[in-house]
């Protein structure tokens, strides 16, 4: 089992190393995408749940 060390091109890969066994058999939560659920947003990213916060009026009467 060889360990692959990354070059220090970015701060995140400076201390990174990957085992060859991990590359051949990765964990399922690392190779599949996440479900886009929660926080009450639709596909456009607009909040669609109740109690969204108060809308501030642009025009004020003095």
UniProtKB/TrEMBL annotation:
The annotated region (Disordered) lies at 1-25
Q: What SUPFAM superfamilies does this protein map onto?
A: Nucleic acid-binding proteins
Please give the Gene3D superfamilies that the UniProt record associates with this protein.
Nucleic acid-binding proteins
Task: Output this protein's name.
Answer: Ribosomal Proteins L2 RNA binding domain-containing protein
Taxonomic source organism = Brassica oleracea (Wild cabbage)
